[in-house]
Amino acid sequence: MRRALISDIHGNLEALTQVLAHIGGQRVNEIICLGDIIGYGPDPAACLDLIIANANLTILGNHDQAALFDPAGFNPVALRAIFWTREQLEDPGNARDPDSLDLRWDFLGELPKRHDEGDFLFVHGSPRDPTNEYVFPEHIYDRDRMANLLQRVQKYCFQGHTHIPGVFTAGGSFLPPDEIDRVYSLGDEKIMVNVGSVGQPRDEDPRACYVILDQEEMTVTFHRIEYDAQATRKKILAIPELDNMLGERLINGR
Fold it and tell me: What is the pLDDT of residues 17-48, one digit of tens each?
């Protein structure tokens, strides 16, 4: 079983399209999306339609949840973006047919907050709060916090939310992809793996990021994919409801 794990697309159609094309050549059996299909980016409807069509399992992200309910804890930039995103998902002009509008809302409304599968746990945020809790690399210095998180993991947890890829180990380390030559072998140690972001990387690498989980070889492989970030940036700058910084940050991966 080879699975592609994608997360944090954030309405970036150019990035998602390139990532799906790359996945198509990787002998992947399933695609799992760890949430935040929408929010921030200029093409929420098109990205949501692609995930509905291509993902075998999708987890609820905090921006997906905010499109359904009152946003909690969102800063002004994210708040304006999610209100605009709602309008796009409800606009008949963005629908292939009348039924697709209801299909999108039904899909979002039925997304699970977590998926447990034996040794494997899939969430958006963390094992403790699957939708909203951030786990940043610097949290390795908070040993109590990390111990609390890892005790909630059977063995391997896969997550997104921070947009920063890497592996958190039970030994108290955070291993960015470059430090492990992009491949991590799964063993007996409990770990948490952040799969990075397709549509809004924040590790100073502007390329889209995703992971392939090979459950036969027991490896996690990080992939970085080039896409036309300038095209996405220009779309964002042309939409008054989306802050310009949401486009500018794509160029430097911040």
Answer: 999 999 999 999 999 999 999 999 999 999 99
Q: What is the pTM of this model?
A: 0.95
pLDDT digit string, tens, across residues 186-204: 999 999 999 999 999 999 9
- DSSP labels, 26-85: TT-SEEEE-S--SSSSS-HHHHHHHHHHH-SEEPPPHHHHHHHS---S--HHHHHHHHHH
pLDDT of residue 54: 97
Euclidean distance between CA atoms 97 and 106, whole angstroms: 15
How far, in Å, CA of 197 to CA of 4, rounded? 13
Cβ contact 45:52 at 8 Å = no
The rounded distance, in Å, linking the Cα atoms of 204 and 202 is 6
For residue 234, count other CB atoms closer than 10 A to its CB: 12
